[in-house]
Amino acid sequence: MKTKQIVNIALDGPSGAGKSTLSKALAKELGLIYVDTGAMYRAIGLFALRQNVETNDSASVIPLLDSIKIDLIYKRKEQRILLNGEDVSEKIREHAVSAAASDVSAIPEVRHFLLDLQRSIAESNSVIMDGRDIGTVILPNADLKLFLTATAEERAMRRYKELIERGQKMEYETVLSDMLKRDRNDEMRDHAPLKPAPDAVLLDTTGNSFSDTFALIRQVIKDRLNDVF
Ligand code: DC
């Protein structure tokens, strides 16, 4: 039996594939820290929106990085994200911030700015880290890489329900077309595009309930990491 061992699980996939709900539940079950890297891009997107800059104009966004400090803290085991000391965990979930996050995430300097923070958390903690490039760029030596997906229609429906639950008025068609645009942005960008690592386990969750997918991933973890969990 090994003593303290750091375990890193990478979970990538497009928006609305269920990454964050599953990661949170898996983190709880396995005693890992859940790291939501999308929240970091959202915080930078929110900062840029507040400064009234065009979020897809790298020349305007890059200078802002000098004024941004991002910290992750854990309150009752839940990740909270601080932007220059302000807890923006709820504000970053607003619909407008999603597009801004996607824009800023295409800027290599923004990705570089977050890389050290993401890697350093995983170096000293056992984590399940969710994002788009965790298995390909951030943690290429992760102990397990998962890539979760589902049809755009199903992902948009899940996101639509989440927004409605949060009291944000939105048409399903708008959520779907924004999601398709964001998928394109994330997949087509030159730098660290959304794609599965060659050694990732691919899981299509279309039609699955949460508990179906949870059980499936739990089994993959048992098979692949049976010396740890
Ligand atoms: O997972 P999310 O929807 O909160 O992510 C917000 C945006 O950030 C999304 O458009 C893709 C981008 N992102 C990224 O490029 N790399 C990551 N590791 C995480 C998110």
In words, what does this structure look like?
- The protein is an alpha/beta fold.
- The chain has one domain: Rossmann fold (3-Layer(aba) Sandwich).
- It contains nine helices and eight strands.
- The strands form two sheets. Strands 2-6-1-7-8 form a five-stranded parallel sheet, sandwiched between helices. The protein has a three-stranded antiparallel sheet with strand order 3-4-5, covered by helices on one side.
- A hairpin with a 2-residue loop joins strand 4 (78-83) and strand 5.
- The mean pLDDT is 93.
- The protein binds 2'-deoxycytidine-5'-monophosphate (DC).
- The site of 2'-deoxycytidine-5'-monophosphate (DC) has 14 residues, from helix 2, helix 4 and helix 8.
Annotation field: number of helices = 9
Helical residue percent band:
40-55%
Structural class: alpha/beta
Mean pLDDT: 93
Count of strand segments: 8
Would you identify the regions where 5 or more consecutive residues have pLDDT less than 50?
A: none
- Taking Cα atoms only, what radius of gyration do you get, to the nearest Å? 17 Å
Give the termini separation.
11 Å
Main sheet summary: 5 strands, parallel
Task: Give the strand order, joined by hyphens, for the main sheet.
Answer: 2-6-1-7-8
Order of helices and strands: EHEHHEEEHHEHEHHEH
State the CATH superfamily name.
P-loop containing nucleotide triphosphate hydrolases
The CATH architecture: 3-Layer(aba) Sandwich
Q: Looking at CATH, which topology would you report?
A: Rossmann fold
Number of domains: 1
Principal-axis shape:
globular
Distinct compounds present? 2'-deoxycytidine-5'-monophosphate
CATH class: Alpha Beta
Strand fraction equals 15-25%
